[in-house]
Design brief:
Shape: flat
Bound molecules: heme C
Radius of gyration: 31 Å
Mean pLDDT: 81
Order of helices and strands: HHEHHHHHEHHH
Structural class: mainly alpha
Helix content: 40-55%
Distance between the termini: 94 Å
Length: about 260
């Protein structure tokens, strides 16, 4: 190989030659700015993901602690009638909801143990006759009408379906409140995109409506396969008005049925 050949090879490898220098220079510049645009895009994309998934929820929700760290697991063992000892239906069918202080004083008139949470309960609330201002995770907006009797008594649903396993918890979890609407985060759910894995992950209108729609089908056919429900939905759409009248059909999500859940 001659010296000239070697030089030519080197030029070919580096792509550098005096003859082609003007267009090449332009090309290099283009490449450079293309790279920084890509980098800019990636950095911006990652930054907006961080803002959307981490910073935004932190800003949107304020965190509050329950006034007393209540231990469900411990109490379910201690009381006689399980959940119903504290959450029961009154004679008129209405639901007692979160227990009143009088339901605690039977056992906590005075502190039984050394637990600081119990001392707080006795000193701040029992002794002063003040109700504990519990925060309700599942609290819906004021315009919503919800009846526990319809779900727990009539439809025989489990608490866990809507509330998750709070009955087995040994600590009260943090309550998160949407700073703009003042509504509990449990309604929208933890997932910012509104996705859910468990039936209790969110409680928006869609969730209520989805179950009401599928429940209505279940009782007509009495087989609980999702595919059958899907075909029945198609049949109901194709031949409206063919569904049998019945108690379960009272819950609809059609226009005139807004007042089933709204007041
Ligand atoms: C059937 C009796 C009984 C009733 C009713 C009862 N408790 Fe208790 N509670 C206990 C016992 C037993 C303990 C465990 C011993 C202790 O720490 O004093 C306890 C412990 C506690 C403690 C400290 C332990 C912890 O971290 O939770 C708190 C706080 C408490 N109870 C709150 C309440 C509240 C609020 C109510 C009313 C909604 C209530 N209890 C109703 C029996 C009862
Ligand atoms: C000794 C009384 C007591 C017993 C027994 C009890 N709870 Fe509770 N429950 C409470 C108190 C007090 C609160 C409010 C504080 C809190 O949210 O932890 C509450 C709150 C709840 C909530 C939260 C509602 C909301 O959205 O904020 C649910 C759901 C619940 N209980 C379900 C259950 C279930 C299920 C059981 C039975 C496995 C049960 N409880 C047994 C006293 C009791
Ligand atoms: C179909 C879903 C569903 C089921 C099943 C259900 N709940 Fe609820 N629960 C709700 C909703 C929704 C709210 C909020 C109601 C509101 O804000 O008006 C609520 C509210 C509550 C509250 C707070 C109520 C208040 O007024 O302070 C308690 C306590 C509670 N539920 C306990 C229970 C227990 C215990 C069971 C099982 C026996 C149960 N829930 C079953 C959906 C359900
Ligand atoms: C997992 C299923 C399920 C979920 C979730 C659910 N429901 Fe229901 N709901 C039912 C069933 C089943 C009935 C009983 C229907 C009947 O017997 O007429 C019912 C009945 C009702 C009724 C009584 C209406 C009537 O005509 O009898 C109201 C009001 C209601 N639901 C509101 C709500 C609201 C509001 C939500 C959401 C916060 C909700 N439901 C979530 C299953 C569900
Ligand atoms: C199965 C029960 C159910 C039915 C039926 C229903 N809603 Fe709702 N709706 C809810 C619940 C629960 C909420 C609160 C949670 C949310 O914001 O999604 C709500 C919230 C709303 C809101 C937002 C109000 C606010 O303060 O956030 C509007 C508007 C609304 N519903 C309109 C309607 C209209 C119009 C209909 C009739 C086509 C209807 N709803 C039927 C359960 C229902």
């Amino acid at each position: 190989m001659s010296k000239k050949d070697e030089k030519e090879k080197a030029i070919a490898l580096t792509g550098d030659s005096e003859a082609s220098s003007p267009p090449d220079g332009a090309k290099k510049e283009e490449n450079g700015s293309g790279g920084s645009i890509l980098l800019f895009f990636i950095v911006g994309f990652i930054a907006s993901l961080i803002v959307g998934w981490i910073v935004f929820p932190k800003l949107l929700y304020s965190q509050k602690k329950q006034p007393i760290d209540f231990n469900h697991a411990l109490h379910v063992e201690t009381v006689d009638e399980g959940c119903q000892s504290c959450h029961f239906f009154r004679d008129d069918g209405s639901f007692s909801g979160v227990p009143k202080l009088t339901q605690c004083t039977g056992c906590h008139e005075e502190a039984q143990g050394e637990d600081p949470e119990e001392t707080k309960l006795v000193e701040e609330y029992v002794a002063k006759g003040r109700e504990v201002p519990w925060l309700v995770y599942s609290r819906q907006p004021n315009c919503v009408f919800f009846s526990h009797a319809a779900h727990v008594k009539m439809a025989k649903m489990e608490c866990v379906t809507c509330h998750g396993p709070i009955g087995e918890s040994s600590h009260a979890r943090i309550y998160e409140e949407n700073r703009i609407t003042g509504i509990s985060r449990d309604i929208w759910g933890k997932n910012i995109a509104g996705l859910k894995r468990n039936s209790w992950d969110r409680m928006k209108m869609d969730e209520c409506a989805e179950c009401h729609a599928s429940e209505a089908i279940k009782t007509e056919v009495s087989i609980e396969t999702p595919m059958l429900g899907f075909f029945n939905n198609i049949i109901r759409l194709a031949f409206p008005g063919t569904e049998k009248p019945g108690r379960k059909n009272s819950v609809q999500t059609q226009h005139e049925a807004c007042f089933v859940c709204h007041k």
